[in-house]
TrEMBL record:
<dbReference type="GO" id="GO:0016787">
    <property type="term" value="F:hydrolase activity"/>
</dbReference>
<dbReference type="GO" id="GO:0019748">
    <property type="term" value="P:secondary metabolic process"/>
</dbReference>
<feature type="domain" description="Amidohydrolase-related">
    <location>
        <begin position="4"/>
        <end position="399"/>
    </location>
</feature>
<keyword id="KW-0456">Lyase</keyword>
<dbReference type="InterPro" id="IPR032466">
    <property type="entry name" value="Metal_Hydrolase"/>
</dbReference>
<dbReference type="InterPro" id="IPR006680">
    <property type="entry name" value="Amidohydro-rel"/>
</dbReference>
<dbReference type="GO" id="GO:0016831">
    <property type="term" value="F:carboxy-lyase activity"/>
</dbReference>
<dbReference type="Pfam" id="PF04909">
    <property type="entry name" value="Amidohydro_2"/>
</dbReference>
<dbReference type="GO" id="GO:0005737">
    <property type="term" value="C:cytoplasm"/>
</dbReference>
<protein>
    <recommendedName>
        <fullName>Amidohydrolase-related domain-containing protein</fullName>
    </recommendedName>
</protein>
<dbReference type="InterPro" id="IPR032465">
    <property type="entry name" value="ACMSD"/>
</dbReference>
Amino acid sequence: MKIIDCDAHLTEPADLWTSRVPASMQGRVPVQKTIDGITAWYLHDEVWASTGGNTISTGREKVLGAHVVQPFSNIDISSWDTKERLALMDDQGIHAQILYPNGIGFASNHVFAIEDEVERTTVLQVYNDFLMQTQIESNGRLFPQALLPIWDMDLTIKEMTRLIDKGMRGFTLSDKPELIGLPELPEAYFDPMWDLFNQTGAVPNFHIGAGARREDLEAMRGNIGQKASGTAGPDVTGVAKPAWRSFGKQRQLAVGATQMFMSNVRIIVNLCMSDLFDRYPNLKVVSAESGIGWIPFILEAMEFQFDEMVTHDHELAAAKRRPTEYFRDHLYAMFWFEEIGAAKLLEDIGINNVLVETDIPHPTCLFPGPREHFARVMKDLPAHAVKRVLQDNAAELYKIDIS
């Protein structure tokens, strides 16, 4: 069995941009600085991003009760080095990984916050080149999902085409582009992007938290106990925070992380209620790091509400199929720590719609024994179901050679 981990994170190495841009762009790209023992990414001498969720320290020791190992020099090199990541995967019994960003957010919103367009485009394309280099160096085992400049649709199509031609398998997208002043995903503005996904088979991925604006994500990181990282944005006023303010920082972190799993309910329900899959029948969409235990309830709720609420002829004609039918044919969700969902709910969700992940090196990642965990929680399932969930679904979706 070649387990394919469909959500792990690639921490941005310290020289990601400075080692890849000409002298003329030095000073105009993010640089990593450590001040008073706290490492962050700086742009124009202002904090731009944190170093992300890193809980595996040097010596491959997992740090509990924290979100960010500080300073950066204390993070295990496997978080960003290709050779060391592959060695870590070998130790864990993982064949391949689908990789998402870490400190710079889970879509391109951090990059969009860069005001200068030349700097913004350079930062995004250099980052994507780093991802492509990682994939090539891994010899078919690491598959990063690239960022898209969705603020410019012509540039988005050029970047997608450039990377797909090099072998990129998918991209990570904001599920709420309207928060940064763009149209919503089903509107005509995004049609060229969806059309290219439909034609090429590249995968659009929606990672939890990907829709947050840069300032909101950094503020959220602070609200759930990340002020120690030195990268938290200002406190949000007039909005209820995930956790009660009377909680300690660690309990705030646990409360916020628990609620974050449910943030992809919105994108899944909207996709299943829309006609997007009628227009682009080859689309396969991934909900990353969102878990699966809640999926049967959402499927049942969508069907019930559809019958109760969608009655007018023009509403019924807005999409050709029922919500659950779209889910079965076009959507994937994934689990890692769950036991009940894996052992008892796969048939209700659909074994063809489930993937697995480790979430390394984030908090609550499966470390050091994911293979043993999957074997234990799936021990009573038929062999064909286990093989499909651990290997075949991902291999087919991301076109990974497992021969």
